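G., the chain you wanted modeled:
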Amino acid sequence: MIQGANYNFIAIEGNIGAGKTSFATKFAQETGARLILEQFAENPFLPKFYEDPEKHAFPLELSFLAERYHQLKNEFSNQDLFQPNLVSDYYFLKCLIFAKANLKGDEFDLYTKLFHIINDSLPKPDLFVFLYHSIERLQENIKKRGRSYEQNISDDYLMKIQTTYFDFIKQLNNQRIVIVDVNRLDFVNIESDFKLLKSSLNEPYQVGITRISL
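Predicted structure as tokens:
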């Protein structure tokens, strides 16, 4: 179990620039959990997508679907008896959320069928955490980390992703979901802010959606 709550698998999610990877990495280090990080930086379609979304959206989303599935399947197939707990910086549901935002018509319909076939074979997290930032704060974070292909992401696109996340979250059943408003925190650079966020995940949350503000 991770900390005092009965969570063997925690998935950290959020919009682009939310700090998912930074928080998940430090959280795993401090709790002794095994860390799963999304390998997005190696995806050759990502820079192309930001240059020409309509042309590259479908191959991008298919490649992410395949990569995330294989990564999670391997991680769960190779459970470490000395590190049985897992923390990831994404939830597989992310595939469907970004596909909904980026694909249209028949492409999205086909993608959805593939997603559900694959998704049914993967374990669900014991706790799904969504780090909520305002669009303004997300843009600040994106500028700070300086990835060249992200610098022209629009407010409208970030809002579209955020709205799609919330639409899908509302439809999830039989899961513990915590939406944490972290707009007033700098958990990447301020230790006390990190500890506050970390301690908030040690609560015995009930199935359903819980909203907290830190």
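The domain at 9-213 is CATH 3.40.50.300 (Rossmann fold).

Shout if anything looks off.
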